[in-house]
Amino acid sequence: MTNRHAPSSTDPAEATTVIGKGIHIRGELTGSAPIEVWGSLEGVTGTEGRFWVREGGRVGGEIAAAEVIVEGQVEGKISAEHKVELRPTCKVEGDVVAKRVAIAEGAIFDGRIRMSGAGKPKAGPSAGRPETGPSAGKPETGPSAGKPETGPSGDKRDKSTSPGGGDKP
Predict the structure, then answer these.
(1) Are 104 and 91 in contact (CB under 8 A)?
(2) Strands 40-42 and 17-19, how do they pair?
(3) Is residue 45 pLDDT above 70, yes or no?
(4) Alpha carbon distance 94, 77 (integer Å)
(5) Distance between CA atoms of 96 and 5, rounded to whole angstroms?
(6) Which residues pair with 114 in a beta bridge?
(7) Would you call 13 helix, strand, or coil by DSSP?
């Protein structure tokens, strides 16, 4: 008989980091190996592998990973290079950014979803951090075009009345 929870490799570089039930961690957790949370984690987390919040697990803060699976609770932004999967037992309060998003019937989700296209740069250690560069802060095209955006002073303005936005007769 084999133990299904035993590590698949004896190489520590390939081992899954497990935050067990009853364990509470506060701070920043980053790395390349998969992470499973059965306990509680507060802070910014990032991995190049899979990040799995197990049923009964709780994360308060940002998550950035190649793939994210949520069965427990998350309060904060979730960013994934490939896919975010919200399972029936989860409760998520925060935005989700990924190429693919799956929300199971019964999952509780309160936030926004932004699905990035295949042409976007590969997520890395800075995944989940605010965008910078020439396109940062520029209005998006597509379904959100024409919706109010926040101006430099924090006021809401309609894109159609912005310079070049078509407010001329």
Answers:
(1) no
(2) unpaired
(3) yes
(4) 5
(5) 28
(6) 97
(7) helix
Q: Are strands 149-150 and 156-157 parallel, antiparallel or unpaired?
A: antiparallel
Q: Burial, 33: exposed, middle or buried (Cβ in 10 Å; 0-12, 13-18, 19+)? A: middle
86-137, pLDDT tens digit by residue? 999 999 999 999 999 999 999 999 999 999 763 333 444 444 444 434 444 4
**Any bridge partners for residue 69, and if so which?**
52, 85
Q: Sign of the CA dihedral 32, 37, 39, 41?
A: positive
How many residues appear in the chain? Answer: 169
Tokens standing for residue 138 = 């520029």
d(CA 126, CA 56): 28
Contact 107, 88 (CB under 8 A): yes
Instruction: Quote the pLDDT of residue 15.
Output: 86
Q: Which of 117, 70, 62, 131 is nearest to 94 (CA)?
A: 62
Sign of torsion over alpha carbons 124, 98, 8, 90: positive
Q: Which residues on adjacent β-strands are paired with residue 157?
A: 149
